[in-house]
Amino acid sequence: MFKQPEQKADIGVFGGSGFYKFIDIEEEINVETPYGSPSDKVLLGKLGNKKVAFLPRHDRNHSIPPHKINYRANVWAMKALGVSRVISPCAAGSLQTHVEPGSFVICDQFVNWTNGRADTFYDGPIATHVSPADPYCQELRDLTVKTAKELDIKVHETGTVVVIQGPRFSTKSESRFFTAQGWEVINMTQYPEVFLARELEMCTLNISLITDYDSGLVGNVEPVSHSEVIKVFNQNNEKLRNLLFALIEQIPDKRVNCGCSNILEHSRI
Predict the structure, then answer these.
(1) At the N or C end, where does the chain have fewer CB atoms within 10 A?
(2) How far apart are CA 97 and CA 147, in angstroms?
(3) Distance (Å, rounded) from C-alpha 52 to C-alpha 139?
């Protein structure tokens, strides 16, 4: 299905709301995909000995809302550049009182509450069923938690992110329902981005930067607004960059123990 990629990058990073610049850019390239154009040009640079590809998922002018992102094109572009690991930071809301704004959650599960999004590369003729039971790479998650603690960043080692359709936020009743399920994080872009990367046998990692308490949380918080999300995200952007810089330089050159690189062996009859 996928031709041998041109090795221009080892690590891919998707930029979300408020996160439009990351590395010193050495090259900007347009990547053609069978699914149309990605959100923006892919920006290439280096961190230590790692070649990094950065793609703002909403584009650099934040002109693409969550439900209009071409997730398949974005993920395919990363794979086409040779990326084997995808880091997917995002601004997110908290659904639980102990998950404070300004902290990071290294999610280990998602719940898909979106609709109508193209969410697979495998429409036939070979029936392919990639398991999302453990959607995020355990090796990357463990390394991220370790790195965050070394940098004295407040981090929650696990969490479930519920992904809503957008662009609207939740009503108080919807948010109260999500809180009652015990889920910790709410966001609009993790699905299908992370699952699509998994379908292409890339390791996936989410870092949720908590910007607010969601509107239904115990019924006594101010309703979330986009301007407040961006304000808190900008206040914590430096922490996110520091974490990503330190993390990427520590990622092993080869994947050995995570199993992400041979997912398709177990996904087809």
Answers:
(1) C
(2) 24
(3) 19
